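TEACHING EXERCISE
Course module: macromolecular assemblies
Task: Read the component lines below, then compare them to the predicted structure of the full complex.
Student: A.B.
Group: 4
Components provided:
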Amino acid sequence: MSKHYQRPIDFKHGRVEMTHGAGGRASAQLIETLFAKYFHNDYLGQGDDGALVPSPSERIVIATDSHVVSPLFFPGGDIGALAVHGTVNDVAVCGATPLYLSAGFILEEGFPLSELEKIVASMARAAQQANVTIVTGDTKVVEKGKADGVFINTTGVGIVPKGIHLSGKFCKPGDAIILSGYIGEHGVAVMSKRQNLEFDTTVKSDSASLNSLTDALVRSIPTLRCMRDPTRGGLGTTLNELASQSGVGMRIFEEKIPISEAVESACEFLGLDPLYVANEGKLIAICGKEDAPRLLEIMKAHPLGSHAEIIGHCVEDENHFVEMKTAFGGSRMIDWLSGEQLPRIC
Amino acid sequence: MSKHYQRPIDFKHGRVEMTHGAGGRASAQLIETLFAKYFHNDYLGQGDDGALVPSPSERIVIATDSHVVSPLFFPGGDIGALAVHGTVNDVAVCGATPLYLSAGFILEEGFPLSELEKIVASMARAAQQANVTIVTGDTKVVEKGKADGVFINTTGVGIVPKGIHLSGKFCKPGDAIILSGYIGEHGVAVMSKRQNLEFDTTVKSDSASLNSLTDALVRSIPTLRCMRDPTRGGLGTTLNELASQSGVGMRIFEEKIPISEAVESACEFLGLDPLYVANEGKLIAICGKEDAPRLLEIMKAHPLGSHAEIIGHCVEDENHFVEMKTAFGGSRMIDWLSGEQLPRIC
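Instructor-supplied answer key:
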């Protein structure tokens, strides 16, 4: 029989049904009239079980992230855009140019199709802005109560320019630690919409693709050691990861860490330490001391780095401690995040 | 502070906690003592946000699949092995040699760590058998009741040998349709363990990686048009997909379709049509008529193709109908799967 559909999907009033994930006609219809419509490109249009893409002439980076953020829509973003930004950034901080994304959806039966369409449209916009192509995908549906609306996995593939070698292992004592802007915005924005917690704030998520910024750094900073986006676990945990990977200590300066008043007061209200609150559009870059002014200049010239600061430097320390000089002249150890602080933030 | 963990994770009696997904010390500990232990390899060991792998000298294929099978353990397999087989096969049927997998876990709070360890160990075994490397991963945890134990996304990257061009679009009238063995085993095996449905059967899932078989065909069959693994939606839906993609009709012969007595009687008991029951280790290959005997011979010589049969051929048909000649000499239209038949089969 032909694939002609009996009736169009009602994206205004309809809901996700188990048949949308069964692999038959309803699945094909959802793919054709939703995913292919918004993600439209030649690779996706191949219609085979995987996407065939040209031979990359460089080393490739592969990164994956499943997104379970709750709620699905929050000030400054939604799970769709976040699923693009998160994986684009994981690829980009490895020094790579992100090219391709896969998208795997797990949908809960009964989820409104109107919301799914908003999410898919938002993903498509985010992918276009980041100049990446969603080349292949998958959709599964689970029974009502067996998931929480929508979970999205994205996996990204990018290429690393010749001669570029970055890793969290490459930090050396004396290296400068530069942060691209205000911390804690994503976490606070998401928390402000949690059902049991709603509070008034002007804070919006910083969710954004960092690849144009990372690209500029990769091209211009010869001593660039590594980049990292401080997401789950926040700035504090990410610095600890890098210190531990490289076998160095770190000294950072509280007064240099960019933080907005709105985030500061929200964190006080919520009893959160902003050092551990997630960011989704911030960059930590570590480079040789001699290149720090140039790196800072490039960041500040970029729309996503206008509040960048040199927040500290690496030191010799066999314990790999991250120590913060406080605004009052004291000193505080910055440990790894040890509790959960903010569940389901990305 | 250093990353030294206060106490080891209790994989025998412990359960997944929200902190395991928070990105802090507990996440790092789970990654180190579970995922890195079983998936151990140099790429994963890089410890950066993505895995850097060598430049592929050929075109690459990217395929993704989220796995939500229920129950998680079934005769002949489990969600871990299935998550490897499913994506390896999606890459392999594109004519590619699968090289790398990413693994994205969504875990439900309270899930027993002992079961998670079994699943991860099974994934590692399956990856080793298929000769693919799990190069990067991600773990999220959602609250109890917001997922169903474990969901696993895998995304695969493989390389396509020079000169190989396969697609579901390439079938021509006259082409032979070859199936590698018994249908319906995976679906029946999973259904036999559903809580509300348990019934006695000897059927085991056929879940397996097909890449050594597809590789043999790619190398030896000059007129190979396409390959496809008939998973969700079964043989019936997959043939319809290919017919529609290529703009041909298909004629298949019921008596040629390999099916075991055990699957046949289970399907009768369950009221299922085996043509629409999922397979996870079966291959459909379509090639020029002249190569069909050679293709069949190669399949039969492979452990995963010993019951292979030429089940039919492509015909000119502007409606792209799939028609089956029944064992009794009649004829039946094989439509796309239109209902759900078997929810959460993969």
